[in-house]
Amino acid sequence: MAEISDPVQILTVTQMAQADHLAATLAGLDGFALMQAAGMAVAEEAKRVLGRRTFLVLCGPGNNGGDGYVAAMNLLADGLDVRLYALIPPAHMKGDAARAVAGWTGPVRNFSELLNDLEHGDFDADRTGVIDAVFGAGLSRALEFPVRDAFAAIRAKDLPVIAVDVPSGVNGDTGAVDHGAPKCLATVTFFRKKPAHVLMPGMEQCGLVSVADIGIPDETLEKTGFAGMENCPPLWVDDVPVTHRGQHKYDRGHVLVLGGARLTGAARLAGAASMRVGAGVCTIAAPAEVQRIYQTGPAHIMSAVADTPAAFLELAGDARRNALLIGPGAGLDRADDLRAIVLGACGLAGRSVVLDADAISAFAGHADELFHVAHDHCILTPHEGEFARLFGDLPGSKIDRVKEAAKRSGAVILLKGADTVIAAPDGPKGEQCVVSTHGPSWLATAGAGDVLAGMIAGLAAQGVAPFTAACMAAWMHGETAWRLGPGLVAADLAEGIPGILRDWA
Questions:
Q1: How far apart are CA 113 and CA 13, in angstroms?
Q2: What is the pLDDT of residue 88?
Q3: What's the predicted TM-score (pTM) here?
Q4: For residue 214, with 0-12 CB atoms within 10 Å meaning exposed, 13-18 middle and 19 or more buried, which class applies?
Q5: Which site from 48, 216, 227, 449 is most exposed, i.e. has the minimal number of CB atoms within 10 Å?
Q6: What is the number of H-type helices and E-type strands within the chain?
Q7: Is the peptide bond preceding residue 7 cis, with omega within 30 degrees of 0?
Q8: How far, CA to CA in Å, does 422 sit from each of 96, 201, 286, 403, 454?
Q9: At 134, phi and psi to the nearest 5?
């Protein structure tokens, strides 16, 4: 992957705390200077998103609350109506947060007054905004009275909320959401995003996330490390395959897809996507009984008979067929045969092997057999149910689980979802884990996963490294859906790929 300077790295709560401390050493910025910059950034974003209105600023007991005091001070200095509510008395604030309190010149109301004002005041969504600076990313306990009740009242009035760092009640490392947490219009975080900003359900709770530069130098990343990166073209655009006039079709790779006997559309969608993304040739190998279905499909996709695992593996033995896609629509009625195909395919040298859907589920209870033969040119693309069948209930965030799965299996893992996470098996480095959040909600449609698997296979066939191919395909998959808009069906996705490639060409 290419080196990038954009702030796409994702830091855990602990890593971000380390970055805060390192800022003093590397940039001469103490904690209060960072707090002042953070509070100013929150105030500016609040005005940008909500305009000039009354702001209710809710401040908690720690540094998140200190950020809120600074934001309130900046809003007040700009002539806005600001009402500050503190969870604890100002005199009880400590450290940098106490210094922030000293800069606030307006009245400080408590949360009992907040509940009363929300019940009896004339606040409405058109004239009032809320800044949630109660708890930061490190909160791991459930919200309690009076915070829980305050957010319930805010929700009942449908008041727009802007969160400082993460919404109160959202776990910064996992994205887990307390049922009382506010659903925010926007969230302002600092230096880099945290897992909660890119992992569901926290991502949905955050709304639009902006990352403010508060002066922490990028060099701190060399010491803190990072959990992963957010998927975007600068990570891999230099690796997008480029065609040349002297090439022939086999130079651009040959994808061999296992075709099922019943759900025949899945393999056809995948095959079409593999060629739309640039593979030179695609063959669907399927039982003789359904050859007519595959032969009457798109004229540019070839078909071949494969009634047994041995027949498929004989076709896969042709060195020109350098990317193998197994699983879409394969069916589990002959799971033993499906496992035999997968195990044999993984044993062929010089092949990239993409395993999707039933090719993963077939190994429920037999995971060790797969892990024994899997390698770093294998790409597994499960959804959550298929992932659990293979890896069980792994602990930690989705990022943690996918990293561990990649390490355990020896393969690249792409765990699908609105927060698709992709990890390579060669260590826990953040560079080897990417979170793709680019897909719109209407991408949740039958066959979309088959198209994604086909795109990965098509890119791998062209020589793109497996981890990079997965990242590239995931982003392009989402981008195509955005361009097509609501109402798309899976077949539309493959047809939309050339437009993206044309833009890059």
A1: 32
A2: 98
A3: 0.95
A4: buried
A5: 48
A6: 20, 18
A7: no
A8: 38, 18, 29, 8, 16
A9: -85, -60
